[in-house]
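User: Could you walk me through two proteins back to back? I'd like the raw sequence and the structure tokens for each, with a short line separating them so I can tell where one ends and the next begins.

Assistant: Of course. Protein one, sequence then structure:
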Amino acid sequence: MNEAEQGKTLPQLGLVATDEVRIAGLRSVLADGSGRDLVLLSEPKALETSGLELVLVDSSATEHLQELLATFRSMRPKIRLLVIGGEGEPGFIEQAIAAGARGVLSFTASADEVRMAVEVVRDGSVWAPRKILSRLLDRANDAPPPAAAEVHLTRRELEVLDLLLLGLSNREIAHALEVEQATVKAHLGRLMRKAGVTNRTALGVHAMEAKWV
């Protein structure tokens, strides 16, 4: 089998997690004798791994889950995302999917459920309770088309948004744009008012959904 075929049949799975017990458990559950392995994305340049097509994200490993998902969507849009956490809470699942996840698993999911969810998401489908999928579909059908064209965003606001979706802090955005942090906060404040939201995470999600960037 040549390298291209191996990349197709033995894709590597990425993992965002910090709990060593959970990492070991997922390695054990997903070991199938094929040589497929979990790539810890905390390692330098791990996201550049060839063949990486699905990433599992432990929600307890970050305080900014929506921003992290938005960053993946921006940097590697073809990678499918599967979130672990939320314990079946409808609000959590809806927010994760709205932010770009293709599925959500609870921490108490069985080994079979984990393996099945990985295969379903890899195949391009969504892993979530049917009631929630139905609710999201109804909401999408009832919602008016995005009105991004009606919202005027300045060039600088778009630059701030791009950096926000890459997961940068206010200080890092200010450094990248060579401006004061107060200026960044002012831009974010105006963007939040235009989006009708009150925090950075909601702003990032809205910007992606409304196709502002």
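----
Protein two, same layout:
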Amino acid sequence: MSSKIKRSTATIPAIAVTAGEPAGIGPDLCIQLTREPLPAPIVVIADRELLAQRAAALGIAVEIVNFDAERPSAARPGQLAVWHVPLAAPVRAGALDPANSRYVLRTLEIAADATQQGTFSAMATAPVHKGVINDAGIAFTGHTEFLAERTGTPRVVMMLIGGGMRVALATTHLALRDVPAAITRPCIEETLAILRADLIARFGIPRPRVLVAGLNPHAGESGHLGREELDIIGPALEALRAQGHDVVGPLPADTLFHPDRLREADAVLAMYHDQGLPVLKHASFGSGVNVTLGLPIVRTSVDHGTALDLAGTGRAEAGSLVAAIELAEQLASHARAPHPSAVK
């Protein structure tokens, strides 16, 4: 990963930060940001009274100031700029309420739209609770899919960064039984094309090298443990190599993450969520960052959930959200600067 950018924040556009599930630790983390050195100004998109209540519960003195998109100005030390979105129902820390699910989605809509319009340079998201949103009768599988639909992006790629690794996923929030059918040649080829393009354009890696996992144990054991590697993944990688991609695989996932292999690569593509992310989260939980690749905007997120039991207690740590904001600024900075086009 690239080093932190150290420069004045006076000329850097603000980053939108959504506070996530109001009963979880997202509001706590947003309040804690006022005590952190950040690389860019931030604007929290949330209910201002919720933030004031959580600040009081945490014993942190914060002056909440309203953000005006027509006359944006940087918050001073001790202040938190907030784009106010009213809650539908009162919130008690740790107690989920489906009535506030549309409020959560509205904060995401505002952040995505305003970032796409140039009001913000990027957006970073605190965790949401998928279950309570679905309990409200709203079909929701995650930030990744929601933002793809909101921005009209046909395919996006979820990648987590931490512990010296970048791990992207060919499939995201699917039941394990549904994964094999989702592993198709177009899936592999399009996912790797998006991954390569963003590693070049936003991470500044001129010729990224990607390690690709197989789907089955031992990468199928020459077809004895499954044929996806022979029939789908392998041919997709051959086609991409012919186009100039530096991709290695399909490799057995149980040995792919050996440090010697990782030192030779810029990213890993895992076939499904729990194939790649347990390794990364073991190495970096609490400081990892989730990135959505392929969007027309920069979006990063924390690597953890809503932690309802920690909400309002002062025991939640803001490390992952700080890392998400730092990475968002780095990626936005690369996007603002001239960069080489990805080789097709």
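The mean pLDDT is 92.

Let me know if you want the two compared in more detail.
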